[in-house]
Amino acid sequence: VIQRYFHAFAQINDEYLKERVADIKDVGRRILQNLKGENKDSLINLQEEVIVIAHDLSPSETATMDRKHVIAFATDIGGPTSHTAIMARSMEIPAVVGLDRLSKEVSNGDTIIIDGNRGIAIVNPDPLTIDRYTREEKRFVELVTELDKLKSLTAETLDGHKLHLMANIEFPDEIPSVLVHGAEGIGLYRTEYFYMNRRDLPSEEEQFKAYQHVAEQLAPKPVVVRTLDLGGDKFLSSLDVPREMNPFMGWRAIRFCLTRVDIFKAQLRAILRASVFGNLKLMYPMVSNVIELQQANQILEAAKKELRNEHIPFDEKIEVGAMIEIPSAALTSDILAREADFFSIGTNDLIQYSLAVDRVNEKIAYLYEPTHPAILKLIQLTIASGKRAKIWVSVCGEMGGDPAMALLLLGLGIDQLSMSSLALPKVKKTVRSVTFKQAKEIAMRALEFTTGDEIKQFAEAKLKAIIPELFED
After folding, report:
1. Pick the catalytic residue: 7, 83, 161, 372?
2. Which range of residues forms the domain containing residue 165?
3. pLDDT by residue (tens digit) across 328-387?
4. Of 131, 158, 173, at which residue does a domain stop?
5. What predicted TM-score, i.e. pTM, was given to this entire model?
6. In this structure, how many other beta carbons lie within 10 angstroms of the beta carbon of residue 435?
7. Quick check: is 257 catalytic?
């Protein structure tokens, strides 16, 4: 039966449907394993250390891989801001995505170097290459050791301007890494993976206990919980969600939550209940207009009313924010600021939607430019709206974890940056090595350039002149 469907899909002319062949094979393999009583996903039950090479890895496959034994991975497809790549950084697993045909060119038993810094994989390297990478690894460890000395210090410029540095997490077990690297809290707690890889929806009680655990572990440090961001490349196996031709622009995130109020309110109640155990804040993803923000807040108020009637305590003053990920949200940020306590700019999606670039498509990865003048201007506009409304503004995308980009964001007046915990030491070093006046001058000069490449080269050159050790090979 599996082979029949496999061959049928392979003959279809429609490229989108033809690409589902891999899904048919995967589903068939899983069904056969279950029928035979075999519960052995190759990435879960590993017996030795391995480097995983695959055509693609879904976020759910990445989330469930055996982190004790998977020491690195590489895929043929995907981009640097795909959720699989983001999770690799969050889980501190060296990875490279978008290598085209790598999975066809390696065999089990090959020796391979995964260079996450340069985005390359070297198959069966010669002794000289192995020696060079061994020396480079030693220098990297020395740099990390030096940067770790900063973890107890604040991210403050030479002239006294304070920037808050936070960490992004997917799972509660990342908290030790967050604390080790000196984060001031969690600026983005992605909650959708709590819903994935299960046959039923998590109950309110399950969610409450998970959020309570994170709140208690970080207290009194703040934790910003993002409500369910279903869609794009993240789907819930417990829901019969129809496949869409363009899922990144479809029924996802806040749109899904406003339709499935039962799921949304259960999560909001859980977050509210957990808020008394620490310093929780919540934010809604993919807000495109003020009506969505108002509707979400109305459901939040209904959840609060229910808890009051049930005499269940919660933080009455919990801060509620809106994620700025869509151009319409950035362009109307002055209006959204009236309904929010803070903004969190999700640069990964903001870049994708502003530049019409699929962030997981390696064929057009060159068009995905965090330094595109349009992106910097949208960020500048959002920061200005926040300052006028006297609310704080954060960046929680991958852009904030790049030291050169962090320098520009500092100069644009951002209040907070949230990133992979591994990126924190380099960004803190950057902030502590410049004056705020200097950063503002660099940012304003960058805005005068007309291309993303010019801006990127300019920012990196400025930073290299200040902290050359960050750029050593």
Report:
1. 83
2. 145-471
3. 999 999 999 999 999 999 999 999 999 999 877 778 888 999 999 999 999 999 999 999
4. 131
5. 0.81
6. 13
7. no
